Amino acid sequence: xxxxxxxxxxxxxxxxxxxxxxxxxxxxxxxxxxxxxxxxxxxxxxxxxxxxxxxxxxxxxxxxxxxxxxxxxxxxxxxxxxxxxxxxxxxxxxxxxxxxxxxxxxxxxxxxxxxxxxxxxxxxxxxxxxxxxxxxxxxxxxxxxxxxxxxxxxxxxxxxxxxxxxxxxxxxxxxxxxxxxxxxxxxxxxxxxxxxxxxxxxxxxxxxxxxxxxxxxxxxxx
Length: 222
Prior knowledge:
The chain has 222 residues and is of the alpha/beta class. It contains six helices and seven strands. It has one domain: Vaccinia Virus protein VP39 (Rossmann fold, 3-Layer(aba) Sandwich).
């Protein structure tokens, strides 16, 4: 646990206030309205999505790898959703059996995981065929000029807030065993321009097993 991670967790909700009011909250509400059945949320942070889960959610499991964030998440879950399960786990190594969730939620997470392809493979593994991945994520801009600026700012952005703003996240989702069924490209407000390109959408876990079972680079086979 580092001083930077403690500070980031302590100030995260305050930093996000303007962004939430400028449209992010509405996108959370829209996306999470589609979460039903057995639901997994990765990188749950301080629990910003908790108010938006509806009655169609039969069970909610939330993971968070960073201890300072996890502690705040646990307190918020205790207050607002005591029936939910909270676990410390990275998105790249989810402690669940195959095919055990109906939906997975990732909001502003895939920009910060250490290994994005592996995280998507893990999400595909734990989702049942036909299960849905609901996401709101930073992406690399389709505008070459802005994409170059993202490349220049990426190292600083990663150091400051743990986010790589220039990742081809949509392509990684598609390559990870998902069919994207709904996608909206938006420009977030109240954020620096180089982190303003977002995608909001839904992807369905494919029924084939090759993409979910193929070994990842550097990953052992069991």
